Amino acid sequence: MRKPALYSPSTRPAAKRPAASGAAVEAETVPAPAPGATARPRARWRNALGRMAGSPRVMWSAMVLLAALLAGSVWHGQAHGPQALTQKDIDAAVLRTLTTQNLPSPAARAAEKVRPAVVRVMSYGKNKKGEEVEQGVGTGVVIVDKGIILTNLHVVQGAQTIKLVFADGTESGATVTGVQAHNDLAVLQAHTIPDDLIAATMRSTNDLVPGDGVVAVGFPFGIGPSTSSGVISGFGRAFKSPEGEQEIGNLIQFDAAANPGNSGGPLVTMDGEVVGIVTGILNPTSHRTFVGIGFAVPIESAASAAGLPPF
Fold this sequence. Notes:
The structure is a single chain. The chain has helices at about 40-55, 55-80, 85-100, 105-115, 155, 300-305; strands spanning about 120-125, 130-145, 150, 160-165, 170-180, 185-190, 215-220, 225-240, 245-255, 265-270, 275-280, 295-300. By secondary structure, the protein is an alpha+beta fold. Among the domains are: about 110-190, Beta Barrel (Thrombin, subunit H), CATH 2.40.10; about 215-305, Beta Barrel (Thrombin, subunit H), CATH 2.40.10.10. Strands 1-2-3-6-5-4 form a 6-stranded antiparallel β-barrel. A 6-stranded antiparallel β-barrel has the order 7-8-9-12-11-10. Helix 1 packs across helix 2.
């Protein structure tokens, strides 16, 4: 259905409406000129128009003159109108835009790209009174738009109920459909799938090198989604969590800030493509806070946990 045309309010004063049919119209009274006085300009114009109307030759001459004036005006506009833009003009306009507009940083663009696929993961259990209580909060990332989500096994392990909150606010229960214990990975299937759910793009780590920029997106201490940026510090690292006895190998080391709650979230390149699943942080003390060393499972291993083909 076509929309009606929109018009801007006119700034001109409203024209006086003609009198209604049948109403008397007061005639304009023009005072007669004094004896010997020259005729007023209005009278002269009226007489000239009357002569033109009564003489076809004069009328046609006036029309030809008007057409010539109009053609001259059009030619002048074409001859002296705006010139075609040159490459120099375009470069100057782009430079002016770059110097006057605040463009998003690479980290902001990367986080914005992956954010629709980032999920809050909450695990619940029963207390001694049989009441449902929250055991912990972590992060997940949608890797298939049918509601398949990757997270850390320690985020959902032992949970009797798993709840998800998607980027658009949709809430859903979830079921663990796959486990890769040696990499601390779990695959979840959402029970309710949002409309137009967007899955993250995954990227091989083969051509990454230390110093490449990365972004971590998740829910540290349940706050978020939160974004932090840094670089890849190294590859092939091993990590053993303070709570567990199992050592995880072949990890990506990075220095983008991560804390409890980031577990299971995506580690992405500056293009917003997932290269790892955040799984742990190293702290020599008993405090569970970030000191500059985080670890992520490479996406090649993480994707295999969901049965996806290797890169």
